[in-house]
Amino acid sequence: KMTTILLVDDDALLRRSLNYQLEQTGYRVLTAETGQAAFTLARAESLDLILLDIGLPDKNGLDVARTLQREIDVPILFLTARNEETDIVVGLELGAEDYITKPFGMRELLARVRVILRRTARESAPALDEPLVVGDITLDIRGHEVIVRGKSVALPPKEFELLRLLMLNAGAVLSANYLLDAIWGEEFAGAVQVL
Asked: Of 13, 52, 65, 153, which sits most exposed with the smallest number of CB within 10 A?
């Protein structure tokens, strides 16, 4: 899967320039010039990173980050023209991975993007090539195969996802609402009869 980056900045020239540079580096780039457009894209797309300007025309970038952090788990790199320490501190306390002050060099930005993507990839689920093993169960994510005590077991996609989530969180108690939201989506939250 291609790494997708959402770039949110109201400066059209900077957006075009960053979009071009990031695409040349091999990333898929979506762009937004307002906080509202950022919400729409972030909710519709599977993102790996958000480059977010603090000074947006319709909303403060810090408020945009606050809302997005509640809704989706995606790292944020703040782009800030202001060298105000308070904005930077608030941004980092909100959970942003990093920040970069404008004007910045393209090589520095690309290096920071690579570091964040490497770090978040390491922190997320095991690599697709590595099967998950818990007790007698082996789950091969890439091959979409479940093996129980040496025998292959066919599972429908939702059950496979549910088992994968349970194996990733082996030993932890997961609420029914968390499972519903993670596997079936928000529209089923609270509909425990689905389980």
From this structure: 13
Q: Apex CA 135: angle with CA 131 and CA 140, to 5°?
A: 20
Give the per-residue SS3 of the chain. Answer: CCCEEEEECCCHHHHHHHHHHHHHCCCEEEEECCHHHHHHHHHHCCCCEEEEECECCCCEHHHHHHHHHHHCCCCEEEEECCCCHHHHHHHHHCCCCEEEECCCCHHHHHHHHHHHHHHHHHHCCCCCCCCEEECCEEEECCCCEEEECCEEECCCHHHHHHHHHHHHCCCCCCCHHHHHHHHHCHHHCCCHHHC
Distance between CA atoms of residues 74 and 57, nearest Å? 23
pLDDT tens-digit readout, 2-42: 899 999 999 999 999 999 999 998 999 999 999 999 999 99
Q: Which residue from 111, 109, 77, 83 is spatially nearest to 96, judged by alpha carbons? A: 77
* Listed residue (104, 9, 109, 122) closest to 64, CA to CA: 9
pTM for the predicted model, two decimal places: 0.63
| Residue 58: CB atoms within 10 Å | 12
Whole-angstrom distance, CA of residue 119 vs CA of residue 105: 22
Q: How many CB atoms lie within 10 A of CB 173?
A: 6
